[in-house]
Target: Ribonuclease HII
Amino acid sequence: MLCGIDEAGRGPIAGPLVVAGVILKNDVEKLNDSKVLSEKKRELLFDEIIKNSYYHIVFKSAKEIDDMGISACLKQSIKEIMEKLTSNANEFLMDGNTSFGISNLQYKIKADATIKEVSAASILAKVSRDRYMCEIASNYSEYDFEKHKGYGTKAHVEKIKEFGRSDEHRYTFRLKALGEEKLGVQKSLF
Model:
């Protein structure tokens, strides 16, 4: 059986990276890349996917991203998913253009739009991350996380200018709008 893997939250300036792996036990209709589905449709599909799959979801915090680097967090998350779901899967396919040096991981660009297991993983990762950002929003009301989900929108950057970064922000993600220069050498993937 195929385990599809995808992530949500690689690019935001706040909040976690979320990586999901999905093995479908039963067919789920109308799966697609989470980015092209409405929030309402993603929420409905989330419950269907949960009921009809073996799955595992991994969260990596902003601090872990700052400490290890985004690529290392991705690699660690993928390995955890593979470990947890290996008894149910004999193939693992990641959306994207790299295997992160993991020998038995296949990859395909735009797999989230063409392979149903990867589409399902895309939805679980996106909904899980969005829900998390909405849940913490009241603790960080000055940032409006429920609106932009931690992405670097103009409004979000203005809030950072006003209030500084919170412990949910990624300090290693530098912002030109704040006059920040890029940090030195990126942490190694391997």
Helices lie at 39-51, 62-68, 70-85, 111-114, 116-136, 145-148, 154-163. The chain is about 40% helix and 15% strand. The longest strand covers residues 17-24. Residues 13 and 173 are 6 Å apart (CA to CA).
